[in-house]
Amino acid sequence: MKTCLIALGIIVAFGIIRMPLEQRLAVEHRAAFFHGARLNLDLRQQLGQMGFLAALSGFRAVVADMLWIEAHSAWERTEWGRMQLHLDAVTSLQPRCVMFWDMAAWHMAWNASVAAFNDRNQPREALRIKAQREYFKVGEDFLLHGIQNNPDKGFLYERAGAFYDQKMHDSCKAAEYFAKAATFPDAFPYVKRLAAFRLAECPGHEREAYDQLVALYKMGEAERVPTLYTKLRELEEKLSVPQEQRIYTPRIP
Amino acid sequence: MSAAPTKHIAFSPARIAAIASNTLLELVRLKVFYFMLIFALLLIGSSAFMVRFSFQQQFQVLKDVSLGAMSVFTWLLATLSTAMLLPKDIEDRTLYTILAKPVPRLEYLLGKLFGVLAMLAIALVCMSALFFVVLYAREQIVLAETVKVTPPDELAAALRDVRDLTFNVNLLPGIAIIYLKAAVVAALTLLLSTFASSWIFTIIVSVMMYIIGHVQPIAREYWLEAVPGGTVASPVLKIFLGLVAVAFPDFQLFNLVDDIVVGNAVSTTMFLKTTGLGCGYVFIYTLVGYLMFANKEL
Fold first, then answer.
1. Enclosing H/E stretch for A114
2. Which of A14, A26, A60 sits opposite B217 (nearest CB)?
3. Buried-exposed string A216-227: b where 16+ CB fall within 10 A, e elsewhere
4. What whole-number distance in Å separates Cα of residue B190 and Cα of residue B292?
5. Would you report the helix, strand and coil content of chain A in percent, each value rounded to 5?
6. pLDDT value for A100
7. How confident is the model at residue A103 (pLDDT cuts 50, 70, 90)?
8. Is A73 exposed, middle or buried (0-12, 13-18, 19+ CB in 10 A)?
């Protein structure tokens, strides 16, 4: 009995000593973006008892992969609703995986939205457009939540830029996200060009865009793609840049 | 002329090493060890042939499945092999033979624990080696494909992307933390087996503690920080959660590998702190296990 009490005492004392240390360590882990998964009742319903238990017991990456494969199967069967549910669960389980957010947004905003717009079972165009916009919104939510969970990675900013450019036709927002993506050291060289090109189409930002395009031009041959010349010409016309200051010079036949 | 009697040493690392090596030999001879190791190796090996969506997803699935398999099998090995150590020695009467000699019970217990830890290290090294071979092979295939399809001005960035997605220096601390978690589970199971009446009881309680250890920090966070409706948690609930936190280990702190796979970095300080905490658990559980075992009537 005495031994049991001593043993219990040691465990309790150790527990009391380690609790604040563990709390501090948990805060450090969170600051380094660990343990960001949102395990809630919605997820519990979707994963089932065993899946949820596995996710809780340290195997959430594997559970997320299984669900991802199920989402892929749902895509093959074009079951968009089911797919969205799986993608929600996958991104909840692995919020630090940029690829899951990107693919989820792409499936919803690009694939599901087109499928909704071309839905032959819905004769009313207004309803098809409404469904399409709903999928755009779902895709946008995936991208924005993905950015929220991964503010230290540039790739989702780039994808958000592409989304606003290609799907929402909002050049100002697209330029904003491309510009943000371009600030990351691992950004592809074309991202800063895209930021300037979209800004050139954003009303009220012509001067700013022109300065960026000129800066790109001055960076060297590698940046001087045909679109750069086109945009420079458009803005030089729009801003009435004096002839001698213009960069774009029409080729004389 | 007779040899002078050797002086008995109260605490002998050599004796612990002898018991540990015998334990390791015993464990390695168990069929269950080979079965589990073969299953783990098969799973890691087959992860390379899993559904191929894009190269990113392929590497993601490969790493998740492989590291998940390492976690599962080291945990199972730690639980099953440790739970059977003492009951098997009692059943075979080996325990009485050893303790009849001038071997302190602490040395016996430490020898058993170190034997299990050595076995876990061997299993994890085998699994890690295969994992790295599979990852390297896939990386080479994807690199070759990338060179073929990528424009020259983006090739360097594309190759860097592939390399970043495959080998990541943080995988090593991730694997070390998997080992640490298994070591904590082994020490906990050894503690349980010092007073348990059967190995089935030990396994069941150990598994329960493993699950509770993973769930309790999530439940605590949910109840204390995100109470629905914004209501404050009651004092009774707080006391209950405090007791659970004191009694059960927080295994979520050793659960870093899921996030390491997706590129999270483990700083040296964080790794050392986590390792220190794990060693603390192993020390305390072994100490308590010794206290229980020292007074156990055999």
1. helix A113-117
2. A26
3. bbeeeeebeeee
4. 11
5. 75, 0, 25
6. 92
7. very high
8. middle
Q: Which positions in chain B touch A12 (Cβ < 8 Å)?
A: 246-247
pLDDT at A133: 93
Q: Rounded to an integer, what distance in angstroms lies between the CA atom of residue B150 and that of residue B153?
A: 8
Asked if B211 lies within 8 A of A25 by C-beta distance, the reply is no
Cα distance from B90 to chain A (closest Cα, Å)? Answer: 21
Say how far apart CA A210 and CA A214 lie, in whole Å.
6
Average pLDDT over residues B160-176: 84
**How crowded is the C-beta side of B206, counted as CA atoms within 13 Å?**
32
- Please report the pLDDT score of residue B158 as a whole number: 80
Query: Is A187 a residue whose pLDDT tops 90?
Result: no
- Residue from A113, A201, A106, A110 nearest A159 by CA: A106
Tell me if chain B has a CB within 8 Å of the CB of A31: no
Length of chain A: 253
Q: What integer pLDDT is reported at residue B281 of this predicted model?
A: 96
Q: Mean pLDDT highest for which of A62-66, A82-86, B223-227?
A: A82-86
Report the C-alpha gap between A146 and A163 in whole angstroms: 13
Report chain A's C-alpha Rg in angstroms.
26
Q: What residues 196-255 of chain B have any CB closer than 8 A to a CB of chain A?
A: 210-211, 214-215, 217-218, 242, 245-247, 250-253, 255
With beta carbons less than 8 A apart as the criterion, state whether A140 and A109 touch.
yes
ipTM over 0.85: no
pLDDT of residue A249: 64
B107 burial (CB, 10 Å; 0-12 / 13-18 / 19+) is buried
pLDDT score of B52: 62
Q: Which residue has the tokens 């295939």?
A: B141
Helix (H) or strand (E) holding B182: helix B171-195
Helical ranges in B6-54 per DSSP H: 13-29, 31-46
Which has more confidence, A136 or B148? A136
